[in-house]
């Protein structure tokens, strides 16, 4: 996998750079400016952004697989993310809130959460409602 | 408990309560979230969206379950088992926020994140939109993250009504709900079919939500959403610009020209709208209008200026030496 991406990344970068050249150099085409391109447009560096995005998508795919997602689902999941979401996940998937950590291993924690439950600050134990 | 009090653990217990007090001061006081006078007057006393299907969660799968309910309410009937491989992270025993939004898109619905205020939440419910909320049911130090679907509220009783976990129509006091919701920075979204818009929220976040949807599902699917947004915000240049692009992508060139023109009227400095307008006129052979639009685009500094200048130059060239 790692070797594959090491092989693919330079090719991908080259393809993107070459692919982006004709828009600047070649004869005028009638392709319109897209909405997403304008929204993302703090862009003298748009092409570089694009490469970054592709690499970030690869990165998120790998991370999702590491977290136990099925290999044949990973691609479709990443494809549905927006560029901003992909870069956010590439940067900080580990710190993103998800699921429950184990609560109640400590008696002290149990008591505190019981008190906060009764005070209506938390909602951990169903029997306090 | 009594045994505990007699023992030296007494001090420990005291410490625990001190810590509890400390946590309380961190968490702030549990006060009933207030509404602005305007909202207090206009929002109905109670609302319950009775037709939101309930899907109970198993294990930690509150994310897939909440999505199944929100999608079901928007007309996509799907079960939790189908959604689990699409949004659940097995090793984290949970689902992350961006993937919740992305999964909505995969099923042909637009995820609109809400601005994150109690008032905005009630306004969506009043408009008939169930709202997926993220809560931390515990304290910041030992988080218990949870997704639930708000389906109604009862102002006289000061209660939210949620499809949550394994409990349909669970009633939770406003202040308890708001305290747990506030710990996710009041993260919430609605999942709507293209053409429906959230009750509130600014135009920019709606544009972003629809654009994200469009890049997954394509222009044809997104066009009704752009039309609806343009109807609600006729003076939003970016909306008309996006509408023009979607119309063009679906083969409606004349409609696209109308929309791009509206965009340039709304904001005379929106260079890409001038540029696209010029390109379309040029493709139609309407050289005069193409030149006018491209000239506008070429004078505006920004990332599209050079493209506009080239197009303008090639237009002049084409005129001088017709084949």
Automatic annotation (TrEMBL), chain A:
Pfam families named in the record: DUF6627 (PF20332)
Secretion signal, residue range per the UniProt entry: 1-25
Domain of life of the source: Bacteria
Tagged with keyword Transit peptide: no
Alphabetically ordered keywords of this record: Membrane, Signal, Transmembrane, Transmembrane helix
Residues passing through the membrane, by range: 102-127
InterPro entries: PA2779-like, UCP029543
The keyword Membrane appears for this protein: yes
NCBIfam families: PA2779_fam (NF033919)
Protein name: PA2779 family protein
Organism of this sequence: Halomonas eurihalina
TrEMBL record, chain B:
Superkingdom to which the source organism belongs: Bacteria
A Pfam short name: Peptidase_C39_2
SUPFAM superfamilies recorded: TPR-like
Domain Peptidase C39-like: 51-162
SMART domains for the chain: TPR
Chain spans, region Disordered: 300-323
Name the UniProt record assigns to this protein: PA2778 family cysteine peptidase
Native source species: Halomonas eurihalina
């Amino acid at each position: 996998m790692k070797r594959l991406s090491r092989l693919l990344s330079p090719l991908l970068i080259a393809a993107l750079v070459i692919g982006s050249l004709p828009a600047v150099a070649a004869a005028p085409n009638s392709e319109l400016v897209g909405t997403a391109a304008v929204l993302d447009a703090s862009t003298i560096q748009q092409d570089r952004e694009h490469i970054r995005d592709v690499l970030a998508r690869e990165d998120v795919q790998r991370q999702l697989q590491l977290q136990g997602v099925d290999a044949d689902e990973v691609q479709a999941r990443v494809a549905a993310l927006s560029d901003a979401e992909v870069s956010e996940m590439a940067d900080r998937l580990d710190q993103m809130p998800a699921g429950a950590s184990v609560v109640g291993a400590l008696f002290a924690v149990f008591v505190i959460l019981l008190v906060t439950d009764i005070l209506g600050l938390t909602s951990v134990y169903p029997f306090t409602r | 408990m009594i045994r505990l009090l007699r023992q030296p653990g007494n001090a420990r217990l005291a410490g625990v309560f001190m810590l509890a007090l400390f946590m309380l001061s961190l968490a702030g006081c549990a006060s009933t979230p207030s509404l602005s006078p305007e909202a207090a007057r206009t929002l109905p006393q109670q609302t319950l969206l009775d037709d939101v299907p309930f899907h109970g969660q198993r294990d930690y799968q509150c994310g897939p379950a909440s999505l199944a309910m929100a999608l079901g309410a928007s007309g996509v009937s799907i079960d939790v088992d189908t959604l689990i491989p699409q949004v659940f992270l097995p090793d984290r025993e949970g689902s992350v926020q961006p993937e919740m939004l992305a999964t909505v898109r995969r099923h042909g619905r637009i995820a609109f994140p809400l601005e994150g205020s109690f008032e905005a939440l009630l306004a969506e419910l009043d408009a008939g939109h169930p709202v997926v909320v993220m809560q931390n049911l515990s304290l910041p130090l030992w988080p218990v993250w949870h997704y639930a679907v708000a389906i109604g509220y009862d102002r006289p009783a000061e209660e939210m009504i949620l499809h949550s976990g394994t409990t349909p129509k669970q009633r939770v006091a406003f202040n308890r709900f708001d305290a747990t919701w506030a710990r996710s920075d009041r993260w919430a979204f609605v999942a709507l079919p293209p053409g429906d818009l959230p009750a509130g929220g600014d135009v920019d976040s709606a544009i972003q939500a629809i654009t994200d949807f469009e890049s997954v599902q394509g222009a044809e699917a997104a066009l009704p959403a752009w039309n609806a947004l343009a109807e609600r915000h006729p003076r939003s240049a970016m909306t008309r610009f996006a509408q023009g692009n979607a119309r063009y992508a679906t083969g409606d060139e004349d409609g696209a020209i109308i929309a791009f023109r509206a965009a340039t009227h709304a904001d005379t400095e929106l260079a890409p709208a001038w540029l696209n307008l010029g390109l379309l006129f040029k493709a139609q052979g309407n050289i005069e209008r193409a030149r006018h639009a491209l000239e506008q685009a070429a004078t505006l500094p920004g990332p599209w200026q050079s493209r506009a200048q080239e197009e303008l130059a090639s237009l002049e060239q084409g005129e001088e030496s017709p084949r």
